[in-house]
User: Fold this.
Amino acid sequence: MGKSKRKQKTEIFAVKYASGAVVAETDYDRNLLKGLPVGSAVKIIPISNNRNYQHHKKFFALLDCGFEYWQPEFSVLTQAEEWIAQAVAKKIAIAANDEDFYQRVTKPIADSVLADVRLNRESKLDYEGMKTLESYLDHVMKKAGFYDIKPVQDGGTIKERWSISFANMSQEKFNSVYKGVYGVIWNETLCNIYESESDLDNRIDQLMAFGG
Assistant:
């Protein structure tokens, strides 16, 4: 019997004010908080390491800037599905004892079936509904190279982004993450939106001031 999959805990960062109120100050954390059922019990643990919370807020203000202009791309076919289709086509050619049969007949059939499946799935997708800040965080972190390679059951591997939680990442490493993600967001979209990186920095500062 395989091991049961451990449920990942929801981690929300917030600040306590003099009034006693505890406020989530980034859109990302506010969305996580909204997702909790009413009446949920929560555990509050003060941050004790050297991570700079203002830098954490700045990171998510940067994400908000890029997220507005991000056009996500989703693959509706898995690598395993594409491999299986072509492997079956090749096996049929081998069974037919005809080396050219794959290129002439079975490969075009496999390609056609995969295209039909792709079109059918794409017609049912809600791309706007799939565009979330969580998926954007995952996208820019992986594109910046901040991920680990993990094996999967089918024998392949997947990229699993690093956790940026205060417990799992030092301020020094977070500085590198911010710089790398900033570069990805700037080069991918925001270089076409802002005149300079200084203009983007000013916008980030505005979002931080607006958010408190």
